[in-house]
Structures are given as structure tokens and as C-alpha cells.
Amino acid sequence: MRLYLLALLLLTCHASCPAQKPSKLRPKWVGNLPAVTDKAYYFIEVHSDASSSLPGARTSVWTELAANVERTDKVSVHEIFEDKSAQQYDNKNVTLKSIDNYQLRLQVEGSARPICSRRIDEYWTYTQRGGTPVIDYHALYAVERKGENADFSSISKTTAYGTHGMWRSAIVPGWGQFYKGTNLKGGLILGGTVALVAGIIYTHSESSNYADKILKTHNSANKRTYATKRDNYMTGRNICIGGLAALYVYNIVDAIVSPGARRIIIHRSTDGKRSYGLVPTMMSNGSPGLSTAMTF
């Protein structure tokens, strides 16, 4: 068997994500790899919970990444080391641009050529183990298949869901929020909806009962008492109806414009031209708006 030196270049793409801090929302790809229609590459998720620092966590997953590449491309990885790394942040536009170069020394049989890969996204949380803080780290890589020439520029991240969350919340309030990974908000919306519906049913039932009592009594004092209670329950019912309507509208708007858990998008582009689109977003002043998304 002849030995060849191959370089596995790992580049992190630039995509929309928050600044480098632990995300409150677990990305959709954690434990659920995105579907790939392009046969030129595949996704690998790697995990580490044995490091107390983020750089250490990033390095600790290299062994698992190399093992996955070995199994898939039938190669033997001898060494992996960091080449260089540069990152640029833009908090105003909530974007992160970074370039992380790595190399793997591989032992294979056949002609030597680079196998390219890119770290698409990463997610981590802090936890305690035996009183020592550790990082529970996950990373998603796109890896070029051996003999292919993959184009990773079609892969991007987003926290926008658009109509995917809207129609779900239109059917069941809170469903769109659950779909987007904002489970607490979804639970509050669903619970509030149930409570308001129950309030409408109860107050309507009580107002009807007192209306019946008014018809069945000839005592004027009792009639006034029953009429007051009927009116109070009708007012409560109307308040519940108004609250339900407001909550439903908020539920729809939130499902459209509020960011959810990061998810992976694979853009379809066959002509190599730029494409433009509008993505619902939340503006800096808290009002809903649209942002422009451009794909090269």
C-alpha cells in the first residue's frame, strides 16, 4: 500500500447567528442531521463533554470527526492539527463570519487529493461534573465525499421560519413556537389559550344561568341581583374573548417574525447567479420587519 499525504481543510462558513456565547435554544440539527440532496457531501455531528474551555472542546471533537471520515471515505487519519483561525463579528446585523483552517494527515491507497470540509455550526452549554465546570459541545460539519467537488456555499444557517411556523400557530396556538424550538413561549401561549377558552365557557355558562334565574323569579330585588351578576359574567366573558383574540394575533405574528432555534438551509442554485429574498425578522426597536437575504 502506498502512503499519500492528504489535507482535510475545514472552513467555517459565514452565516447568520448570535455572537459567540451559549445559545439558549438547541439547534434543530442536534441529534437530527439535516437532509442532504447533494450527493457531493454529507453531514457529520460530533460531540464532546470532556473540556472546560471552548477551544479545548473544539479540539476534542477532532478524533470523532476523523473516525467518521475514516468510516465514510475508507481512509486512515493519522493526525489533525489547527492551521490558523480568524473570526469577525458584526453584532449590529447579528452575523458571524469566521475562517477556521484545520488539516488531517490521511493514509490512503490511490491518488492524493484534498478532501474538503466545513464546520457549519456549533452549539454548547455549560454544566457541572463533580464540581468542575465543563462544556457540553456539539458541532455540525459538512464533509466532501471522496472524488467529489462539493460546493458548501449553498449551506447556510437561519433562525427565521416564516410561514412554516405561521400556519402551525394558525391551527393550534403555540404549535409554531414549539416547532421553532421556543418551547417556553409555546407552552405559555398554549396554556393561555386553554385558560381563556375555559374562562369564556365558564363565564358564558354563568351569565346564562343568571339570565334563566331572572325569568324564573318575580322578586324584584332578586332580579336586580341576578341581573348584576349576569352583567358581570358577561363582562368577564367579553374580556376573555378580547384576550383570546389578542393572544391569537400575537401568536401568529410571533410565529412569523421572532427568531427560533437555528436550522440549516440548503439553497438550490443551478445557474450560479445571485438570488435575493425577504426574511421576516424582529427589528432592533422590537417591531416586526423584513430583512434581505442574498445567496451567491
Strand count, sense and barrel status of the largest sheet are: 3 strands, antiparallel
| Tally of alpha and pi helices | 6
User: Level of helix content?
Assistant: 25-40%
Net shape: elongated
Secondary structure tally: strands: 10
Structural class of the secondary structure composition? alpha+beta
Gyration radius (Cα, Å) is 28 Å
In terms of per-residue confidence, which ranges show pLDDT below 50 for 5 or more consecutive residues? Answer: 1-20, 81-111, 270-282, 290-296
Average per-residue pLDDT, rounded, comes to: 76
Terminal residue distance: 42 Å
User: How would you write the strand order of the largest sheet?
Assistant: 1-4-3
Output the helix-strand order: EEHHEEEEEHHHHEEE
The percentage of residues in β strands lies in: 25-35%
Record keyword descriptors for this entry.
single chain, 296 residues, alpha+beta, 3-stranded antiparallel β-sheet, 36% helix, 31% strand, disordered N terminus, disordered C terminus
Describe this structure in words.
By secondary structure, this protein is α+β, with helices and mostly antiparallel strands. Helix content is 36%, strand content 31%. It contains 6 helices and 10 strands, in the order E-E-H-H-E-E-E-E-E-H-H-H-H-E-E-E. The strands form 4 sheets. It has a 3-stranded antiparallel beta sheet, with helices on one face. The two termini are 42 Å apart. Residues 1-20, 81-111, 270-282 and 290-296 have low confidence and may be disordered.
Question: How are the SSEs ordered, and which strands pair?
Answer:
Layout lengths: L14 E2 L24 E11 L2 H7 L1 H12 L2 E15 L4 E13 L9 E13 L2 E13 L10 E4 L4 H9 L3 H6 L2 H34 L3 H38 L5 E4 L8 E8 L5 E8 L1
Antiparallel strand pairs: 1-4, 2-6, 3-4, 5-6, 7-8, 9-10
Helix pairs in contact: 3-6, 5-6
